[in-house]
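Input sequence (327 aa), recorded before submission:
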Amino acid sequence: MVGSSLIRLFSESGYKNIHATWHERKPSDLKILFDINANNSLENKINWHQCNFINQKESEDLLNRIKPDGVIIAAARVGGILANNTFRSQFIYDNTQIASNIIHHSHINNVEKLIFLGSACIYPKDANQPIVEESLLTGLLEPTNEPYAIAKITGIKLCESYFDQYDNNFFSLMPNNLYGPGDNYDLRTSHVLPAILRKLHEAKANKKHKVTIWGTGKPRREFLHVDDLAQACVFSFENINSNDIYTENISHLNIGTGSDVSISELANKIKFIVKYKGTITNDLSKPDGMKQKLLDSKRINDLGWSAKISLDEGLKSVYQHYINSIQ
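Predicted structure, token format:
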């Protein structure tokens, strides 16, 4: 999802020599690369490379061959509460390896600028809301996604350390909950928004009168459209350097919309868009995760970027993309 949005947005911004990688999902399978502009498919305009960044040798060989001017790290093993809590070893190992391999070999190949994409789950579970960048490492993490969070914190600290020691222009952006075209709708591994959207759509199609969502529905989340994140990456690539970010306590920037909704509110918004007429119930035996996760994005706002896509607008468009993807 993130990678395909980055490809589209950088292409639309005039960049020509774009290299993109894939591991398991072939470019021809990424329907979103064709749907955005049917007359101007991106498949043949991108330099595609198959690479498993968990593997050090593959990572080294690719970066040695391409020798890119800039790198954006969107590769990751991701998922919702179920996936995070079930595949804990894979989430910490795979994501730590991805960050270590790409950042180190970007340094070796003199990459001029590197942006590492993390996640708002890096922050303590009891952090004051909205969460400022200084909250990092000030408390305990949410247990259900701790392995993933630790791997992402490692990526932040790798960028910080290579800047401190070698003056590499490497820094990190921390988006909140992402959604958008090309999202993962597998109920075993998906995040909350695509999971609810799929459940409600299938309940409507199968004339089911009840849909169950995990937890109490009370936790509040901030949802960022993936194209807003991609725009933040383009903006940061062109306008921000490590020296603009780094202080004694900060080496990354939050990327969010500045507003949040409860999971129940989200479910009702999707219910309205899907036109589902049944009832939404809660499975109280399932975990809620953090009570709230709202980012303070004032620093990047002050540098000139802000989110543009409202949640209502984004949900309407992503539901249409979902329908198109299953037809």
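Checked by second reader. The chain has a mean pLDDT of 93.
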